[in-house]
Backbone:
């Protein structure tokens, strides 16, 4: 019964929080933007959507904005008719958490071009998408299918500080370009890099290791192997 | 705006340079850089260097309490330090030799790095000609993080002078650190993927000392950073269970650092294991959909299996009876029968899950492992056979079991017939059913329930179809005198089943217990005879007969054995259960023997069985070379097996022994692969 219980729990949990799979439907969400308006992903069906997880005080994000790399990516998206949603999953009291006015001020002062800056102080959307870093980028095509997730470009890893971001291979631009010309996105996943998303820490939050996609039905745990008699085909046929 | 940023960065750079020029004026600051929350210094194992020599240098980060910096792979966030060396011409610097990291959880994420202090080693090699003093400079960029991250940058340099290597105050620290840099793991190790879990397995001689282990993946997108890693020890081998990453990137090698902890001490090992196509993603090669389809087909074919024949006869009789009823009523019976079948399958599945969770090792037909149930079934079949053969009309109580055609008029009878059909069918396995059931046992909760449900649907479908389309039934002959004859004939398969069950029982219990059950069957027969004899009489004689019959039945139940025979018997083909006596006999007869010490709770054993022992090539070569396969199952404590293990210096499983026809056995590695095993067996004579 314990297994049944665990299976039920993990099924339930997977609906609440899970990472997203490239080339599968991007889960819908609703968040309040910096103008107090509730915005849903589904509002933009028919358009390509870029999700950008941000935290303006994170040095990785700061460099992308200082060098104009993020803005140039936003501009590229805008020219192609894509919607840009900047999401802040920092919990109140943590780095990157801002009030709406500050968020708007940051947009203006940094010449940023998001359609909306969205607040996710509970971290639900961030965890649902498995956003780990700032920046962490997602590109969703016009039919709502996730086509890219990961870093903004290949400048991540060690020596990031030394790298010229404008010379980096920009995965988001590549994905947008390929989606626009109806091509298959070449790089679908990359390792996101940056600061950790400053999620709300709650004791009640399920540890992420309990999160398993509902799609993985055929899961055996070590305990299962321990307890089940490893019945092979031959064993079963013998009975 | 962009221009403004550029101007600002120019300003920063010039300030930075100014700062540096100030620093470089003081002599001590050269090898030391204070970056606020952390400081950086460059140290070398010697102040002197000769030509063509390699010298160990280190970048030492000292962090304020609570701050950390990152490993080469930072985990979910952050970035490891990077260095640009500034060396005189001809000098070469190695890659950073990263010391083993520690886990630094940032809920709900996981990062890897160093707290308090980090010493990143590099080997610098001098050319054949040098102009002294040698200036070794490093431009370093790193992150110092707590809940927030600070990017830090600094330049440090030291001077090395002409002379032979000599110790200074940093020498011992650097050499000590060099010893902790991960090395290659020399003992056998491997990675296996079983369904959705990744098992990193390795052997260690000094296994007793290892208290915990952790694998730090070097690459993104294969192993989850945050998931717990569960370590299991089996004698000298270990199995570390890793969880796949939420986002998967095509990965060819499992790369990373394995950390082994023992008594406050840690060892680090570099691993780089090809995943290849040998990685077995599903031991049975079935996904759930296929398993469900197989289960359905298996259930359907199960109807045609010989051991289901007795129920088939009950059901055929039932349908013939019903064909006289109304169509509606028949449909009703059909559905209720199916409901009985499905409910029973679900109960069996539920029971299975329950027993599995309590740690019992069971399989399909696990109810058949119980001498109690088998004995009861023997009595039941004997009784049903007698009833079929004779003229006994059992009323009330027994008819409710749906054994008799009469009982089937009411719906409860149909339901119970369905239930009985499943119980009786349980010793049978039809084609397709095996793989599906094997899959069911490896499924957590819901999966196995669905598989059992599919089996039940397949099993009850023919009857459901017949009850919905009674025109098919009309093809069956009209009832009449022949029915009595048929009923009598049907008694023989019943008794046949009882015989077969007696044989099953004989493999489980001692001979005298089997004999006791046969006596019990005789008593059941006597009781029934008495009932039949007096079924038309009234009063005292009838009550007396009933009383005697109940006593006979009670006595027959008392005769049922409850304990197993000491050693289970033959398993399959050239496969036998281990007993010291059996092994000795085989050795006396100069037979080659493969002895597998295993247990259901041993992951390494199960993985070995899945990826090597149960493979066709292995089975074939064992058969071809006429090697007897002995299986010592240590799932339950067994002093004989423990003694045998002790003889080979083991306290646990797995242990694989390959006995040639003469001489001492070869002890095989604990981590088997198919090729390796075939290799060993091929060489044996």
Residues:
């Amino acid at each position: 019964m314990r297994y049944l219980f665990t299976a039920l729990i993990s099924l339930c949990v997977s609906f609440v929080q899970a990472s997203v799979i490239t080339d599968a439907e991007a889960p819908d969400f609703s968040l309040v933007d910096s103008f107090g308006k509730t915005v849903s992903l589904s509002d933009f069906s028919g358009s390509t959507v870029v999700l950008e997880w941000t935290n303006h005080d994170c040095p990785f994000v700061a460099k992308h904005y200082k060098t104009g790399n993020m803005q140039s990516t936003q501009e590229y998206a805008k020219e192609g008719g894509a919607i840009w949603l900047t999401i802040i999953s920092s919990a109140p009291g943590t780095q990157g958490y801002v009030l709406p006015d500050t968020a708007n001020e940051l947009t203006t002062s940094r010449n940023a071009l998001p359609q909306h800056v969205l607040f996710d102080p509970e971290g639900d959307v961030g965890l649902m998408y498995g956003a780990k870093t700032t920046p962490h980028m997602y590109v969703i095509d016009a039919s709502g299918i996730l086509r890219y997730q990961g870093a903004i470009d290949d400048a991540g890893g060690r020596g990031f500080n030394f790298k010229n971001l404008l010379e980096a291979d920009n995965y988001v631009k590549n994905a947008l370009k390929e989606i626009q010309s109806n091509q298959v996105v070449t790089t679908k996943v990359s390792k996101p890099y940056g600061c950790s998303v400053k999620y709300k820490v709650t004791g009640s939050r399920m540890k992420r290791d309990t999160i398993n996609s509902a799609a993985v039905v055929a899961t055996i745990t070590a305990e299962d192997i321990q307890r089940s008699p490893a019945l092979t085909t031959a064993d079963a046929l013998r009975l | 705006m962009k221009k403004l940023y550029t101007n600002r960065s120019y300003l920063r750079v010039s300030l930075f340079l100014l700062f540096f020029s100030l620093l470089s004026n003081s002599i001590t600051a050269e090898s030391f850089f204070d970056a606020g929350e952390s400081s950086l210094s460059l140290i070398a194992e010697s102040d002197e260097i000769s030509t063509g020599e390699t010298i160990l240098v280190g970048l030492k980060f000292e962090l304020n309490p609570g701050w950390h910096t990152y490993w080469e792979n930072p985990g979910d966030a952050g970035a490891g330090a990077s260095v640009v060396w500034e060396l005189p011409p001809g000098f070469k610097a190695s890659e950073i030799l990263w010391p083993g990291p520690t886990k630094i959880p940032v809920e709900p994420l996981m990062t890897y790095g160093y707290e308090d202090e980090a010493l990143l080693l590099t080997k610098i090699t001098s050319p054949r000609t040098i102009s002294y003093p040698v200036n070794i400079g490093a431009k370093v960029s790193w992150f110092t993080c707590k809940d927030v991250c600070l990017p830090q940058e600094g330049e440090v340099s030291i001077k090395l002078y002409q002379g032979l290597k000599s110790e200074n105050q940093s020498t011992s620290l650097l050499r000590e650190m060099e010893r902790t840099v991960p090395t290659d793991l020399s003992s056998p190790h491997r990675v296996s993927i079983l369904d959705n879990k990744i098992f990193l397995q390795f052997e260690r001689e000094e296994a007793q000392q290892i208290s915990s282990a952790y694998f730090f993946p070097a690459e993104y997108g294969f192993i989850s950073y945050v998931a717990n890693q569960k370590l299991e020890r089996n004698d000298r081998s270990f199995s570390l269970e890793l969880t796949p990453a939420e986002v998967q990137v095509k990965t060819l090698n499992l790369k990373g650092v394995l950390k082994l902890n023992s008594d406050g001490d840690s060892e680090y090992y570099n691993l780089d294991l090809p995943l290849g196509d040998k990685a077995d993603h599903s031991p049975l090669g079935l996904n759930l959909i296929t398993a469900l389809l197989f289960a359905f087909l298996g259930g359907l074919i199960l109807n045609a299996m010989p051991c289901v024949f007795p129920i088939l006869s009950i059901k055929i009789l039932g349908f013939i009876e019903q064909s006289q009823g109304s169509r509606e009523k028949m449909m009703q019976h059909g559905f209720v029968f199916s409901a009985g079948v499905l409910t029973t399958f679900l109960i069996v599945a539920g029971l299975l899950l329950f027993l599995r969770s309590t740690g019992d090792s069971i399989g399909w037909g696990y109810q058949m492992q119980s001498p109690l149930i088998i004995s009861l079934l023997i009595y039941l079949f004997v009784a049903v056979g007698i009833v079929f053969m004779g003229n006994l009309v059992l009323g009330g109580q027994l008819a409710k079991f749906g054994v008799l055609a009469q009982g089937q008029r009411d719906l409860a009878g149909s339901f119970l017939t369905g239930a009985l059909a499943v119980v009786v069918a349980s010793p049978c396995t039809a084609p397709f059913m095996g793989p599906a059931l094997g899959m069911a046992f490896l499924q957590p909760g819901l999966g196995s329930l669905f598989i059992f449900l599919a089996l039940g649907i397949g099993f009850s479908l023919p009857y459901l179809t017949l009850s919905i389309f009674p025109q098919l039934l009309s093809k069956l002959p009209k009832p009449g005198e022949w029915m009595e004859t048929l009923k009598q004939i049907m008694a023989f398969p019943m008794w046949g089943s009882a015989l077969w069950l007696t044989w099953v029982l004989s493999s489980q219990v001692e001979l005298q217990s089997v004999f006791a059950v046969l006596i019990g069957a005789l008593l059941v027969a006597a009781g029934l005879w008495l009932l039949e004899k007096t079924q038309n009489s009234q009063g005292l004689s009838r009550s007396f007969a009933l009383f005697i019959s109940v006593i006979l039945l009670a006595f027959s139940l008392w005769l049922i054995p409850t304990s197993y025979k000491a050693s289970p018997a033959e398993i399959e083909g050239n496969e036998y259960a281990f007993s010291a006596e059996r092994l000795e006999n085989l050795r006396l007869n100069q037979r080659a023997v493969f002895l597998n010490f295993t247990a259901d709770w041993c992951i390494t054993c199960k993985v070995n069985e899945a990826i090597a022992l149960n493979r066709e090539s292995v089975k074939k070569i064992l058969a071809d070379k006429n090697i007897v396969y002995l299986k010592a199952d240590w799932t339950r404590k067994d002093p004989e097996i423990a003694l045998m293990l002790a003889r080979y210096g083991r306290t646990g499983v797995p242990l694989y022994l390959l006995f040639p026809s003469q001489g001492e056995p070869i002890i095989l590695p604990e981590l088997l692969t198919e090729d390796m095993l075939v290799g060993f067996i091929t060489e044996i004579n």
Remarks:
- Strands of chain A lie at 30-33, 38-40, 49-53, 83-88, 116-119, 133-134, 136-140, 146-150, 195-196.
- The longest strand of chain A covers residues 83-88.
